[in-house]
Give the backbone structure.
Amino acid sequence: MTAAQSQDAPYKAVLEAPEIRRALTRIAHEILERTKGGSDVVLLGIQTRGVNLARTLAERFRDVEGLDIPCGSLDVTMYRDDLRMKPARALNRTELPPKGIDDRIVVLVDDVLYSGRTIRAALDALNDLGRPRAVQLAVLVDRGHRELPIRADYVGKNLPTSSQETVRVLLRDVDGRDAVLLGPKGDAK
Amino acid sequence: MSLYLIRNARVLGGEPRDLLIRDGEIAEIGVGLEAPAAEVVEAEGLVALPGLVDLHTHLREPGREDNETVLSGTRAAARGGFTAVHAMANTTPVADTAGVVEQVWRLGREFGYCDVHPVGAVTEGLAGKKLAELGAMADSAARVRVFSDDGHCVDDAVIMRRALEYVKAFGGVVAQHAQEPRLTEGAQMNEGEVSDRLGLRGWPAVAEESIIARDCLLAGHVGSRLHVCHVSTAGSVEIVRWAKSKGWNITAEVTPHHLFLTDACCEESPAGRSYDPIYKVNPPLRTQRDVDALRAGLADGTIDCVATDHAPHAVEDKETEWADAAMGMIGLETALSVVQAAMVDTGLLDWAGVAERMSAKPAEIGNLPGQGRPLEPGSPANITLYDPAYRAQVDATTFASKSRNTPYAGLELPGRVVATFLRGRPTVLEGKLV
Amino acid sequence: MKRHLISAADLSRDDALLVLDTAEELGRVTERSVKKLPTLRGLTVVNLFFEDSTRTRISFEAAAKRLSADVINFSAKGSSVSKGESLKDTALTLEAMGADAVVIRHGASGAPYRLADWINGNVINAGDGTHEHPTQALLDAFTMRRHLGSLDGRKITIVGDVLHSRVARSNVLLLSTLGAEVTLVAPPTLLPVSVDTWPCRVSYDLDAALPKSDAVMMLRVQRERMNAAYFPTVREYSRRYGLSAERYSHLPEHAIVMHPGPMNRGVEIAAEVADSPRSTIVEQVGNGVAVRMAVLYLLLGGAQPAIGADK
């Protein structure tokens, strides 16, 4: 047993690398379908793991469809409604594609959709950055328990969870491996 | 007349003795004394010292009665174990005439908590330009013998020389506040690492030492007595030691705070504050090296005595930015405790040494025949009973002084004055003013 | 709990890097069409300025407003302060107004510490007497880092009236925290007596220091220092310690020239040097807003301040 596995001991993998790959491929197809070829699409990954997912999606478009879809990153820290409930955090990069988001179809990309508050913050942030024609949402995992009227347009996997559980998304670029783990609350880093 | 029997007091820290006080004098000292008519003061565990004498007190009256008065200041003195204080001349008006010194002296006599000996100004208005009428003050009812422009330095060498010479005629002494004025323009605190970090203008040691060196040479040259106020640096101790080795008639004092606190307090106080003007004082708090040298100098007699430089200030003059704050701290009610902590508990002085440096020597320098006498039959019954085993946090709200600018509030200090007798009459009993 | 930014020594290396990294992100807000973030909505920042410094005040004001804080400007002139109200009474007034943070500029060294004793809000030192000016040091470090990359091992030369300079004090502390090698160059009269205990080197020879410098920071020298005999004449000062065009040519290719302002052109810095392409003097002003946004966000934005000292 490797150290990484033992560290994850109380967690069980609900998605492994091949399933994640298939889920992203499916999302890519759905985006193309729903946006009529994806010509006006901008992918905006929400910091931090949403950015990696957005990049992976963009690669998928390029490799499979030969499409060059602009991709950027969005840090929503300064827009969060729980900012003053936790210590002030370091900021990550917000970087829009060179042509911006005005009149584009922005697809927000995040790893896990839970309360919906991060997406609410992201919509506020978008409002200060430009005026997209439409905003859609793609998530790898929807674990339920929404606290706001927000729903994803593209879902990799619907994962029924208890609010006592934690969902951890591991990505190769960041964590060395692709996996979605489910475990008890409080054990997450 | 009054009759008191003090039982089992450790005279100068020695074996327990009884002291019989009759008609203002010590009548008898011995073991197992009986005096049925006497009021008995149990003094088991208490050290008996001759009543303390302060050469350097600011009573603020006349002029700043909101900060201190002769009454409040002498009550504070009595609580601190003092039976005589020298009231500095920097009042409003300045004590530079017979009229002002007599007023202060009379107030002291009237209240009766502690003898008040006014210090006369050396120069008119403390301006350093023209000698005040020193002889008139000496001849007045106040019988002034100590002259000082304290707060200001007599920096003109000619004026200083003349003053040193002139007071010889009536056995006076000039007490110099040694501070070279040009080197200390706008000075805020000791010049060194801390002032450099804090960005506060420095008060260099050399500004004190250069004046002390000059004054010692002058006093040696004209054969006069010189007293150096509030010596604060290691270099000053060396210069005084050298001047004494020449056989010149030089005496020096050190304050309790310069024996105990350093300039580190300005950067971070025990309460965790920075730039708290409670530590702003003139001369400024120096470094640990200076504190060590001052303690050694006091122990070996280079520095003759402890003087409080009790300097009351209103709250609004301390709760300000550092640069705007008044200089000085009160000290009468904590002096003996601080000296115990700095000198006795460190093994540098015994209680006989404390008596010498806080009573006998200052009385001798101030030319006070009725004060600072040994505790023996026939001496005036000026006695301080002190409990060195007591330990408590300093509570400034209990002070008799009108001001609260003490750097020791909230700190634990050893010891407590239990009783003070002024010529046989108690001014303090059981730690409380009578 | 960490609460204030009064001295550059309040910042650990991690704190300082967090401020600089955060400022790097926040600086990008200036490039957007909506130059505002909602982060400090509902919080009140008071600019309490006892000294005229329009530039620093505007910089803090812009920073607070870009984070959506309410800003109250309280300048000493024409206020109750000039009528003799004490700093303490002013502090109690601000406290009653519910100031969440007070940015203070004061002529007396240590005034921000006194203020911090009397109010509950965060205190940010915008320059106190001859003590410190930590946000200036942060923006200087930010500017250097943009040009030079990491400051570890970088050689920074600070020239001029160190003795009376709050900018120099804060820069020596911050730059040494960030791993730079600082050299102070000044006439001995304008160096603190204990400068040998500071985390920097000292030289009296500008010409020797320049060829090894990655950045040279010129401090303002005030003509009135001449009257107190700190140096004989402005001309002699300028000749020995001014950054002339000739001296400028001995700087390495990549080196930058900095000045916290306001400049005495022709005294400590030649006009053509101040206006040269390697001069960052205008850029420094611009970077001030991003750095001050970062400080305000990190002190006020979270449940607890992420930087600073509890003093």
Remarks:
- Residues 17-34 of chain A form the longest helix (18 residues).
- Chain A is about 30% helix and 25% strand.
